[in-house]
Amino acid sequence: MDLSGIFGALLTIVGSPYHMSLLLLAVPIGMFFGAIPGLGGKLGVVLVIPFVFGMDATAGALFLIAMHAVVHTGGSVPSILFGVPGTGPDAATIVDGLPMTRKGEAGRALGAAFGASGFGGVIGGLFILALLPLLRPIVLQFSPAEFFLLALFGITLIAMLSGESLVKGLMVGFFGLMMAFVNLDPQTGTQRYTFDLLFLWDGIDIIAAVLGIFAIPEMIALGAAGGAMAKIDKATARHGRADVLRGIGDVFRHWRLSIRTSLIGAFIGMIPGLGGDAASWICYGHAVQSSKTPERFGKGAVEGVIAPETANNSKEGGSLLPTLFFAVPGSSGMAILLGAFVMLGIQPGPAIALAGMEIVWILIWGLMLANILAVIMFIIVAPALGYLSYVRGNLLIPFVLILTFLGAFLAVRAWENMVLLAALGTIGYFLKKYDWPRPPFVIGLILGPIAEDSYHKAMALWGPAFLLRPGALIMIGLIVLSIGFYVYRQVTNRNKSIWLSEDDH
Amino acid sequence: MRHVLIRSVALILLVACSQETTDDADFYHAKNISYIVATDPGGGFDAYARLIGKYLKKNLGADNVIIRNTPGAGHLIGAITLFRSKPDGLTIGTFNMGLIYGQIVGKPVHTFDLREFEWIGKASGEPRSIVVSNNCAIKNMEDLMAAEEPVKFGSAGLGSASFSDTMLLATALDLNVDVIPGFEGTEGEMSMMRGEICAILGSTSSFTQFIESGYGSLILTIGGNIDGIPNAMDFVETEQARRLVAIIETLAQLGRVTAAPPGTPKDRVESLRAAYKASLEDPDLVAEANRMARPIEPAYGEEVYQLVVSALDQTPEIVAMIKKAIDGAQ
Fold first, then answer.
1. Which of A185, B115, B136, B254 is the most buried (most CB within 10 A)?
2. What is the CA radius of gyration of chain A?
3. Residues with pLDDT less than 50, chain B
């Protein structure tokens, strides 16, 4: 590896006040677009492209990548404080982030989210550096057959996310899968459960779904119960800088998990077509699965915040790889960046290595530096943000509801989406009230279309023999392991509880 | 006396008319115009709309041209949204003209008549090409025409322009192909790199990076001229085949169209057309488009309408052939 080139690029950024000030400007803009539900990073990049036009290629690309890199760092804030996900992939953070806020640990949860985002972003960058030589064979290994099985693997994680009742989890998961079939059938173009409503032709919008299933029930519950998001007395509350730092410390205390989920996120990001929503939920599922105390999840386990947030940011590093070297974008956000790079005069594709790797190193460093800068900026403002969790419900609810409905409207720019939001919100409220797990719904909704689409393609390409491809066999092995592990744990837990109850006598 | 009467009537008419024309000129002053784009932000349709919108704003004297992205269902959602918009001259939109196929074969989800739109203009052509992967045994048109095993083609979803183009060309040239739909965006390129599908028929400009990277090469063009690459019309043997290829050629000309909803007042359509023309002829716009690698080959109002009508006007025999080609796959 060309070490002088790699570190020369770092010096190009750090040594230039111009480049550093661009980073300082891009990071808050990116976080803002992440934090407001329905805006999202894609729109952010599209809106700033005209301003980047006049810059030289290095500066322009650095600005865009820095902005894009930290969108999900910002997106975690409303997830944790109000249960309103800023972006789709930040929804997984709610499951444990919101209970932490309720316990009065908003500061720690925010710290963990920022720390994890920064950590994931940096690991994602290092992942690119390490994997450059192996990129092509790995990416090309993933065909529709593996996509289908990876989606199935994700669906088996429903079991992990079901909490106490597997049956309830499966029912909610299948409800999510059913909702995934609302669209124009991708194979025949006929309407499926759309009732001739135009806004349903492209499927149930993920943003409206996560806002409805998570945000609305929280607000109803808060309104019904009164008080503030945090359920403990302000005097004993912890939202100071020390707590934020403690949250960041948690990321390193759980360093094995942090590294694993960062790598999984970067890996999923690297494979074009899977998307960020899948990455954060699969990592959340993995955190539950690998924990010795899975029963703590959903009730404010800090690992439940760390896992999806590391994945959210590391996947951007991963998806930069195919974007730059194949000119095949790893995500829809990257597709827009790709277009912007071309406008700036950077020609992605295998030729980029010939044209000089400097711009590649600069982008990788930019990605990592932006992530670190975002953490520093947030440490400064986090205590103030944490204070929001003590605002009285009747002051908070109208504001959050407006944000929620606005987010649902903005996501597809159709008023009908707000009706859908209200309907899903009602369902979500009853799920919450009667203690049914809500994450399986989102898993079904997100992974259903991936499974359907890739199944059709794999069948058209190879017929049922697609299950015998080497990659497919590995995925099948993972699925069997995942189910086997779950069964094993259920059985040992039952034995343990029998043993415990016998001990009581 | 009578003269005086006629004169005064004429004068009143004149004043009324001039009043009306100043109304028109001022109509867009300080108004907001919505520009519906049938895709997500980013991508070609969005880029053209944002670029043209900026100049339309200047040429119409409008306050703002607001881009409204209404993606989904292969541009149908955007097109229907535009079709149903209030025809007050303040809403225009852009979508993929592959929808013409849906109308020709009378798909149930195709609930509108493209002829009824008020056509403002088009910004560029989208010549089509067949690109074959380096992993594929097919190296040129002769190989493809002589293929004994079905050659795997990838395309976007079933209703898409790329799917219909491919099926139509296969019928016209009697190609032995197996079209696998569902490859959106660059998924088809990835699949070719993995050695799954062999070829894609799509817009030539979208293959530039793929070919420059050395992953594949062009073997045929439709509606464009590229040195050393044969044209689809060279392989046509019957009149029906010529007509089928001609439809693809017409669609290739109708790239990046802009239309207003049916029933938009004529004078406002004229203002929009004039502003659209002035925008696309503005050297600044052309220079910006060049920088973005977006070609500009404009056509305006009536001409675009005629192209749409000519693509839609097919004999029952041809319609049956198109139906068979597109629906036969289902």
1. B254
2. 22
3. 14, 16-22, 329-330
